[in-house]
Amino acid sequence: MNYESYRKKTEEVTDKTSTNKNHIFEYDLSPYTDEFDEVFGFYQENLGINEKYRIIPSVVFFNNNQTINAKAGKIDDYYIISLNMGLIVGLINIFRNKTDLIREESHKEFFDFEKSLDVPIHDLMYQNAVHFTFYHEMAHLIQKSEFLENYLYENLDNSQGFSERRHLLELDADEFSSLSIGVHILDYAEKTFGSEFNSEQLEKLIIISCSSIFIYFLNFKSYVRKIYFEKMSHPHPSIRIMWIAFSVIEYCTRTLEAKGKKINLTTKEVYNKTLDFSESIADQFFTTNPVTEYKSSIGEVPLEMISYIGKYQNLKNGDKSLAVNKWNQLYKK
Q1: Residue 152: what pLDDT?
Q2: In 3-state terms, what secondary structure has residue 16?
């Protein structure tokens, strides 16, 4: 159990920062105690591993909010990731409790693939969604932006209005999280299938991973069907989904190629298969199929999408404060 460590960490935070102790979620009596304990232990250790980004001292804890959300902030010199307790419970309900998610009659290919894994696909999707949230928030800590003093929230209602800077920071955090997810995918592939895992096995793991983020985003209360560009405080989830999927796919393929391992995957094809898989399971999450609507909305604005993504690619390339640029600099060393 990591609870004693959690208690000491949260006491330290409430003693040395303005964090209100009444906002701390004490998970020892929760029906999901073991899950909260595992999540805290894994990510607090991860923050320690990533001290190389000079986010010290850093702590992750759960707050009492029951919505699916998280935030990152620098409060009184502490780098803090605060995960809503509702994030963990909500993602358990969305993914982990979907024990019949993959059905033989409708998902024969993935049904057979699941037999080769050490956990069911709905569990992998849950883990991946939590991973994505944590690494996104950690990226905000690494950015050390001007917004960090007042916390940066993941799932905002977009009421703050458009900010080019905020859009850039969110896309950068998404990409950093995608790189981290890519690391997990490659590690899991090797652990599960050995160093000689093949293109088909890797492709399925990427599809499962990206689909979990897709379904997660479509559950956001802030999700609106009509795609927008230079509006709101966060980029439209449709843009973020494409940005993330491409980043995960390209990281995995480039990394393996650099190691001399030939993987026969193309980014667009894997992305399209991700959409198809997400569409095939959407009926277990939604009454109407938002994936079908997503495909339609993307097809209506191809030039605007290309222009928007190109603009933010250019903005991020020269900005040394961004988390992905810091990742790349450490990788070069």
Answers
A1: 62
A2: helix
Residue given tokens 């290309």 in the structure block: 306
User: What letter would DSSP give residue 107?
Assistant: -
The pair of three-digit structure tokens given for residue 208, joined into one six-digit string: 């499962």
Distance CA 35, CA 266 (A): 36
Give the pLDDT confidence of 268-309 residue by residue, as tens digits: 999 999 999 999 999 999 988 888 888 888 878 888 989 999
**Count of helices and strands (H, E) across the chain:** 12, 4
Strand order in the sheet with 78-84: 58-63, 78-84, 70-75, 152-153
- Residues 197 and 190 sit within 8 Å (Cβ to Cβ): yes
Measured CA angle at 241 (ends 238, 247), to 5 deg:
145
Sign of dihedral through CA atoms 115, 215, 123, 100?
A: negative
Question: How many angstroms separate the CA atoms of 20 and 18, rounded?
Answer: 6
Q: CA 131, CA 38: separation in Å to the nearest integer?
A: 12
Phi, psi of 311 (to 5 degrees): -60, -45
Q: Record the tokens describing residue 229, joined without a space.
A: 């560009």
Each residue of 18-31: pLDDT tens digit?
A: 999 999 999 999 99
CA gap 186, 182 in Å, rounded: 6
**Which tokens go with 155?**
């799932």
What stretches in the chain show pLDDT beneath 50?
Answer: 156
Structure tokens at 51: 């001290």
Q: How far apart are CA 59 and CA 50, in angstroms?
A: 12
Which pLDDT score, from 0 to 100, does residue 290 have? Answer: 87
Extract the tokens encoding 255.
């990394």
HSE of 98, CA atoms in CB hemisphere, 13 A: 23
pTM summary value:
0.95
Extract the tokens encoding 19.
Answer: 């964090």
Residue in this structure with the two tokens 């709905």, named with its chain if needed: 122
Contact (CB, 8 A) for 241 and 294:
yes
DSSP 3-state of 153: strand
Mean pLDDT of the chain: 92
